[in-house]
Amino acid sequence: ASSYKRTPTQRLGLHAFEKDAIDAFFPPPPAKLLVLGCGGGRELFALLNVGYTCVASEPASQLAAAAAALVGSGAAVHVGGIEDCAQHNADGPFDGVVVGWGAWGYLLRVEDRLAALQKLRRLCPTGPVLLSWQMLVNVPISDAAQQIGVPKGWTGAAAEDWRKGLRISSG
Each residue of 63-86: pLDDT tens digit? Predict the structure, then answer.
């Protein structure tokens, strides 16, 4: 986790598949985005720098503090996990949601993932949700991923625009 707290690492910007998904599915800045599992602030920093308005959270308090220090007064950064996203009711509604690199993988049970998606839909009634994760080679895809239609063998990210259906991008 120490590299997630180093400012140069956090200023690297979005991964190519994240940028592609945001460019393809998200409304343009200054749309209001919720960034969950923001870590040390890499995604948050990049989104703010292109003009998005953001509210963020991270369950690890030290990483949340690092993200807050990185973006200063540019965005509110709360301590909390994806399952705690209802804490953002007062901040919404949102035009889109970005679930940070790797954060989705901490929800292991299908019912926890489905409950989180339902909470996200209440916070972002019509906008896109980007679930960003990394899967290791030769590791079977989770039952939860298969239940939402991710084919076996896919890695990378799924960008979900609930108005148009599930879209999958291999990254």
Answer: 999 999 999 999 999 998 887 777
